[in-house]
Amino acid sequence: MINGYDFDGVVSIGITPTDQDIIITGRSFDEAHIVNKILRERNINCAVYYNPISTNDRETGTEKSRKCSGKHKAEIIYLLKKNGVVLNKFFEDDDIQIKEIKNMHPTLNIVHLVHDLVTK
After folding, report:
1. What are the tens digits of pLDDT across the range 22-34?
2. Which domain holds residue 41?
3. Backbone CA torsion sign across 103, 98, 29, 77
4. Distance between CA atoms of 11 and 66, rounded to whole angstroms?
5. Within 13 A of 64's CA, how many CA atoms are on the CB side?
6. Is 119 a domain residue?
């Protein structure tokens, strides 16, 4: 079984996915060096899917937001499923992003981690 994990507020607080699991983060490619450094330090070697929208995407005028990050995660989950990778569970701490994921994947089992360890 393959599970999906958010990075900030999930993996970043100490939850460790296995090598076959997947991290889908709202962080953009321009932040990948930060995420990859942390993953290397913790010996986490699973696939990571980054948000294609940078902090402020000047080409499209799109501003990265929690809602945008949730839509990105839902889209990646859809593309994974389309390619035969069905997630058993998705671990997420952001209620706005959970709502966006549930809109596209109402039957996906989302584990909502509730804490105040990171700023949203």
Report:
1. 999 999 888 999 9
2. 2-112
3. negative
4. 17
5. 20
6. no
